């Protein structure tokens, strides 16, 4: 029996044959990074391999001096006898699955990925590419049957209707959305004709990286900067703010505001109530329960390793399907704070990173 191509070490997921790590959470000599969310992309590595299209976001978050080698999707490199290629994950700009081939074995580490029951794609990045393999390392952030995403056109219709009603009433529509991935997906999906769009400064470099990569985003103004909109001008605007910055980040217009959150966790009514939201829009950049099932089946893999999220539930379901299944206990975090009363809930990682 051949040795495992990927094992778990203190630094993260490790490929012994190639002597490199995938999304390590400690500084290492050689790292393959699947995408630029903070729980997958850390600073301090001596050599980094990632997709070329993710370079702008990675450098904006980890520094211009990042020692990065960029690959096109599907391009392969041979390192110590291991053939490495990166393939679209559909999660955020530049997100990739890592395909490893060595000794007659093919393993795929998915990173985070988006796939749903409706066969939809995230319009701001390349769609998920199914890869045949012997072993598939899958995320399971939303690995419970309760998580089933509505068609995204329906969700954007709900966001537009909420914004339009607030604009008519002279209110600002404050939408909490994570600065990398979720915010850009919302910007690409809303009807910009409803009114002005104002963004928190943390969105500016990421938006610039998306635009530089050819993703069409509507014009925005920046909150709180010199020459930015005054409080009174926010009436009727869509104001996009990261959740951690909502307190004291802006001065509302005289007509007040309506607060909403775009997140997969908004599937849970209790989460919406506990956070005092006017609305919760169920919009995730991760696979839902049917999407996870579809992705796993498409690989044809007989062995599945489940990482961060609802590992126990997914492993049990996989074993019931006759598959060899286990889990890696990773420290990948949740950018969106998982509600304390959610099934299988756990505290969010303090750094944040996963756009849910």
Describe what this molecule looks like in 3D.
This protein has 356 residues and is an alpha/beta fold. It folds into 2 domains: 183 residues, 4-Layer Sandwich (Metallo-beta-lactamase, Chain A), CATH 3.60.15; 130 residues. It is built from 7 helices and 19 strands. A 7-stranded mixed sheet has the order 7-8-9-10-11-18-19, covered by helices on one side. Strand 18, helix 7 and strand 19 form a beta-alpha-beta unit. The C terminus is likely disordered.
Broad CATH class of the largest domain? Alpha Beta
Give the rounded overall mean pLDDT. 89
CATH superfamily of the largest domain: Ribonuclease Z/Hydroxyacylglutathione hydrolase-like
Distance between the termini: 38 Å
What general form does the structure show?
Answer: globular
CATH topology of the largest domain: Metallo-beta-lactamase, Chain A
Our count of helices gives: 7
Under the CATH scheme, which architecture of the largest domain would be assigned? Answer: 4-Layer Sandwich
**Which structural class should the secondary elements be placed in?**
alpha/beta
Strand order of the largest sheet: 7-8-9-10-11-18-19
Q: What's the main sheet like?
A: 7 strands, mixed
Q: How many beta-strand runs?
A: 19
Question: Low-confidence spans: pLDDT under 50, at least 5 residues?
Answer: 336-355
Q: Give the % helix.
A: 10-25%
Q: Proportion of β residues?
A: 15-25%
- What is the count of distinct domains? 2
Rg over CA atoms, rounded to whole Å, is: 20 Å
